[in-house]
Amino acid sequence: MSVEHYENFPVASWLCPPALRPPITAIYWFARRADDLADEGDAPAAQRLADLADYRAELQKAARGEAPGPRWAGVFTPLARQIRTHALPVALLDDLLQAFVRDVPNPRYADRPALLDYCRQSANPVGRLLLHLHGIRDPEALAQSDAICSALQLINFWQDLSVDLPRGRCYLTDEDLARHGIDTAPLPATDTPATRALVADLCAWARAMMLSGAPLVHRLPGRAGWELRGVVQGGLRILEKIDAMQHCSLTRRPTLGPADLALMTWRSLWMRRQTAPAQP
C-alpha cells in the first residue's frame, strides 16, 4: 500500500496481524481521501472546506450505521463495518478530519504548544486507534503513543521544509523563529547559520519526544511491537540524516535508502527496555 499521500500512517504491512489489516486499511483510506480533499488538485479553499464538511457528515452517518452516499461509498462502507466490528472511537477519526480542515488555510503557529495541539489531531489519533485495536488503553501507553506520533509529525515537518515552505506551509513557530533571530516575513528560503541552528534545535526537540515514547515498543504484542520499532527507528534515522547535512533542510530533503533500512533493522533488533535505543 502506498503511503505517498499520508506519510505518517503505519501501513497494514505483513507485520500486522491479519485480523487487524481490514480496520487499519479502512482507517488509512479514510485519512488518505481526506488528505486529498484538503491538499490535492487546484480547488479553492472554500470548495475544499465544503468537501471536508460533506466528508465529515458521511463519517457521522457511518457512526450511526446509516448507508453512505455514493460519492465516497468506497471509503465509508468498509469504515462503517470496522466501526461496528471493533467499536472504533469515532471521535479520533473526527480529530483526524479536523486536522485536515485546519490545513486548508495554511495557518501559522505561534509557539510549540500550538503546534503540538495540531499534532494532537493530525497524528496522535493514529496511534490511539492502533492501541485501541490491540486492546491497550492505559494512560501511560496512550501518553507514549502520543509522544511517538507527535514526534513523527514533527520529524516529517523538519524533513520536508524544502517542500513545504515554497508552498506556503510553515510549521516553524513564530516563537522559535524569533528565538533564533529569524524574520517571519518573508519566510526563510535559504540555509543560513541561524536557520541551521533553528533546525538543530527543532530536531533535538523531536528526538527527545520520540525517545520518551520509545518504551511503548515493549508493550505491543508480537508483530505490532516489531513494526513500531521500525517506525521509531525510522524517525530517529531521519533526524540523523538531517544532522549529517548540517541541518540544511530548508534547501535539501533527506531520504532513506537501502543502507538506512538495514541499519534501522539492526537497531530495531537491539532496542532494549530503556529510553534510548542501542547503537550498533
From TrEMBL:
<protein>
    <submittedName>
        <fullName>Squalene synthase HpnC</fullName>
        <ecNumber>2.5.1.21</ecNumber>
    </submittedName>
</protein>
<dbReference type="GO" id="GO:0004311">
    <property type="term" value="F:geranylgeranyl diphosphate synthase activity"/>
</dbReference>
<dbReference type="Pfam" id="PF00494">
    <property type="entry name" value="SQS_PSY"/>
</dbReference>
<keyword id="KW-0808">Transferase</keyword>
<dbReference type="InterPro" id="IPR002060">
    <property type="entry name" value="Squ/phyt_synthse"/>
</dbReference>
<dbReference type="InterPro" id="IPR017827">
    <property type="entry name" value="HSQ_synthase_HpnC"/>
</dbReference>
<dbReference type="InterPro" id="IPR008949">
    <property type="entry name" value="Isoprenoid_synthase_dom_sf"/>
</dbReference>
<dbReference type="InterPro" id="IPR033904">
    <property type="entry name" value="Trans_IPPS_HH"/>
</dbReference>
<dbReference type="InterPro" id="IPR044843">
    <property type="entry name" value="Trans_IPPS_bact-type"/>
</dbReference>
<dbReference type="GO" id="GO:0051996">
    <property type="term" value="F:squalene synthase [NAD(P)H] activity"/>
</dbReference>
<dbReference type="GO" id="GO:0016114">
    <property type="term" value="P:terpenoid biosynthetic process"/>
</dbReference>
